[in-house]
Design goal:
The chain is of the alpha+beta class and about 220 residues long. The chain has helices at about 15-30, 50, 75-85, 115-130, 145-150, 180-190; strands at about 35-40, 85-95, 140, 210-215. The protein has a four-stranded antiparallel sheet with strand order 1-2-4-3, with helices on one face. Helix 1 packs antiparallel against helix 4 (about 115-130). It is globular and about 50 Å long.
Length: about 220
Amino acid sequence: MSQPIQAFQPEVTESRLQVDLSRYRDLAMQLGATDAKIISTEAVIVDERVRARCFSPRCPYYGTNLHCPPHAWDLDFTRKTVGKYKCGVFAMLRVPPEEHAGPDYDDPSKHRVPGALKMYEIVSKIQSAAFYEGHHLAVAFGGGPACKRVFCPKLDCQGLQGKGCRFALKVNPSMHSVGMDVYAMVSNAGWDIHPIGKKAEPCQVPFGTEAGLVLLR
C-alpha cells in the first residue's frame, strides 16, 4: 500500500458509497472472479435448512474448525448482522467441475480446490481495501468449502486450541457456515449453479461454482 491512509470519516455519502461499490465490484473481477454484482442485503437469504445440511448427511468438517458449526455464528446472529447493512458485493467464480466432483473430494492429497482458495482471497482483499478506504465495518464471507478443507486440511485447527488462526487475515466464515443459502442466492443473481454431491462425476456438470460476499454499509 503506497498511498497515504486517509483519516476515518464516520459518514459516507450515498454517491460515494455507489462509487466505492462499483470499484469493489471491478476489483473482484480484476482478482479473478467470473462475475460480480452489487446487491442489496434483501438478496441475502438466511435459512435454518442450510445449517440442517451440516447434519444430514453429516459433514466431515462439522466441529473441526472455528468457522463451522457448532462454533460458527448462529442464524439469529447472522440475521441481526446482515440487517445492519444495506448493500454489498456478491462475487462468483466458475471452476473446472473436477474441483467439486468426484469421490476423492475429502482427500486433500488427491483433490485440490484452488478455486475455493481464490474466492477466499477475493473477498478478503475487497474487505481489506474497503476497511482502509473508510468502510471500517466491512465484513466478508468466503465460498462453500470449510476453511479447514481449503487452508488446513492436514492440520488441527489452532483456533479451537486457543492459539489463534494460522491464516487469520485470509480466512473468513463461509456463507454456508453462517446459514446463507448460496444456491438460491447464486440462482437469484442470474448465475447458473449445479447441485454437486459426492456421487457426481465431473462429466455430469459443465462447471463448479464458488461464491463470496462482502457487506459494506
